[in-house]
Design a protein that fits this description.
By secondary structure, the chain is of the alpha/beta class. The protein has 16 helices and 26 strands. It has a nine-stranded mixed β-sheet with strand order 2-1-11-10-12-13-14-15-16, sandwiched between helices. Helix 5 links the parallel strand 5 and strand 6. Helix 1 runs parallel beside helix 9 and helix 7 packs across helix 9. The longest helix is centred in the first third of the chain and has 17 residues. Bound molecules: adenosine monophosphate (AMP).
């Protein structure tokens, strides 16, 4: 027997329509590349997104057409998200920190037909345009009177001019909720990047899940500033979550340094933010150096790579900001788990609670997870046994764009597909997951595993250390041994011996790195994660003193 309820497709356009109708005067505030602060409401955004969708239609865009963006977090980017997706097309966000050759490769692989960009990126676009013959129209996201001329891009269009040509009578179409809405490529640290193609259904369900109180916990009382870029897995879903709950949205544009962020936090009354650990280093340094306090900021999601425990403590103890440690991946839209306390944890001493905050956390309903051994057998949830982390759920990829790499799933006895995350993790009896390492970063010493994340977290807690990375280096007896690579804070000094002594009593003795190397800066990839591939290359000829 079938249920007798309405069959309304879950489409992203309904999120913005809801915001326009029920939170119509809630604001979207953007720091623009033009330099000023722009403010308007969800109602304005919805109207302009409809105009833009109709204008894209006039240019010949139709269902399934990919509209690429190379842009910071800003209101025009929001309009393209909803215009392209809401009309039945696909918004394909591209990370501007990638090499132009990689960007051109991705544009061609994705089959992008339209390409919108902040004019900060004009040099990149000029370099790739001749290599991307499939792109039918290039659109500059800037005020019409600031429109640049470009010999390399004949017929360059303008976002505002285009919008003015669109019709406000245009209405959002209804179609199958399984239609594609957004495309994001994985960072591709090994081999070519692969595309995760989200559907309307997966995106709306992810937003519902993300908004839950023990997940991101977003509400209409919040003022949310995603530091995480809209080109990094759709800013972790916030461009959908914020209008869904009616939160005021603050978009920081290109100014992601500590000072600019702090000023925007204070001026707009930001309560909530989200970003990778590296951006918070900059903010915390600025706030500490100038003796500042936050007036409204009270919690932030930190994920994308392991949040150093020292950062969680500093935020909580010195600034009263709750850190919600989160784990996810491009292939998961991206949220999988977040670490928040449950009733049973409330009476625990602070040190025990801190241990929970350091975990990557509990799944959001919708995601199921397990850890398996190399033989595929499921491993116990005892908080000690580590294994390959596998996930399934309605916002997890089942296949990559273009069928790249074949079927990525691993099937269990019931024939259910699980996505192998490539992460190694433990799960405790209460279902809290903790990442041990990326499986390719874990250090294999004498048949046992050493977590590079644990060693990095401890090193970062040393007052002289700005950033740290640990890689495995070949060793004749043990296979691999850990090498600690550190960048010091400006003006700070510490010796190799002092750093190694800093580990004493905090880890098993055999985990202690065999050596320390000092570098000016730890190389970071396009999404702010440590580029271990680069470090492995850099230290290829390095020999451990113990070898
Ligand atoms: P990406 O798809 O580029 O966002 O990368 C996803 C990967 O980032 C995951 O598979 C993890 O290895 C890593 N990652 C994300 N969040 C965390 C976290 N909170 N702690 C440790 N690793 C993380």
């Amino acid at each position: 027997m079938q249920g007798l309820m309405m069959d309304m497709p879950l489409l992203i356009s309904s999120i913005l329509q809801h915001a326009a109708r029920h939170h119509g005067d809630a604001e979207i505030v953007s720091r623009r590349i033009e330099g000023d602060i722009h403010r308007y409401t969800y109602a304005d955004c919805e109207r302009r997104a409809r105009r833009l969708a109709s204008a894209l239609g006039q240019l010949g865009a139709g269902p399934g057409d990919r509209v690429a963006t190379l842009a910071w977090n800003g209101y025009r980017h929001m309009e393209i998200y909803y215009a392209a997706g809401g009309m039945g097309g696909v918004v394909h966000t591209i990370n501007p920190r990638l090499h132009p050759d990689q960007i051109a490769w991705i544009v061609n692989h994705a089959g992008d037909r339209f390409f919108a960009f902040d004019i900060t990126f004009l040099p990149i676009v000029e370099a790739i345009a001749p290599k991307c013959p499939g792109v039918k129209a290039w659109i500059a996201m800037v005020d019409a009177d600031r429109q640049p001329g470009s010999a390399a891009i004949p017929g360059l269009l303008n976002h505002e001019t285009l919008l003015a040509q669109g019709s406000e009578d245009w209405q959002w179409p209804q179609f199958d909720e399984r239609s594609a809405v957004a495309l994001c490529y994985t960072s591709g640290t090994t081999g070519n990047p692969k595309g995760a193609l989200y559907s309307h259904r997966s995106t709306v369900l992810h937003a519902y899940g993300a908004a839950l109180p023990d997940a991101m916990g977003a509400s209409a009382r919040d003022v949310i500033l995603p530091v995480v870029p809209m080109f990094h897995v759709n800013a972790w879903g916030l461009p959908y979550v914020c209008p869904m709950v009616g939160a005021k949205l603050v978009l920081p544009g290109p100014a992601l340094d500590g000072k600019s962020l702090y000023e925007l936090f204070e001026a707009e009354g930001v309560t909530y933010s989200a970003g990778v650990p590296t951006v918070w280093l900059g903010l915390l340094q600025h706030v500490a150096a100038n003796g500042l306090r936050f007036s409204t900021f009270n919690r932030t999601v930190i994920g994308g790579s392991a949040c150093p425990p020292a950062m969680i403590r500093t935020f909580r103890e010195q600034y009263g900001v709750d850190v919600i440690h989160a784990w996810g991946m491009t292939e998961l839209s991206p949220l999988g788990t977040l670490s928040r306390l449950q009733n049973r944890h409330l009476s625990l001493p602070a040190a025990e609670q801190q241990k929970i905050f350091e975990k990557q956390g509990h799944v959001i309903f919708g995601i199921d997870m397990k850890i398996t051994g190399d033989d595929g057998a499921e491993l116990p949830w005892d908080g000690k046994t580590y294994g390959n982390l596998m996930v399934r759920g309605p916002w997890v990829v089942r296949e990559y764009f273009g069928g790249e790499g074949g079927d990525p799933l691993v099937y269990d006895e019931q024939g259910r597909g699980w996505f192998p995350t490539g992460d190694v993790a433990t799960i405790d009896a209460q279902g809290y997951m903790q990442i041990t390492d990326r499986s390719k970063d874990v250090i294999k010493s004498g048949g046992e595993w050493i977590s590079s994340i644990d060693l990095e977290n401890l090193a970062i807690a040393h007052p002289a250390v700005a950033n740290a990375a640990v890689i495995g280096v070949a060793h004749p007896k043990w296979d691999e041994r850990p090498l600690l690579i550190v960048a010091l804070k400006p003006g700070a000094s510490v010796t190799r011996e002092e750093l190694l002594a800093f580990y004493e009593g905090k880890i098993a003795k055999w985990w202690t790195p065999d050596d320390v190397q000092f570098v000016d800066a730890i190389p970071l990839g396009a999404t702010g994660k440590i580029l271990k591939t680069r470090l492995r290359e850099q230290f290829r000829d390095y020999r451990l003193p113990t070898a």
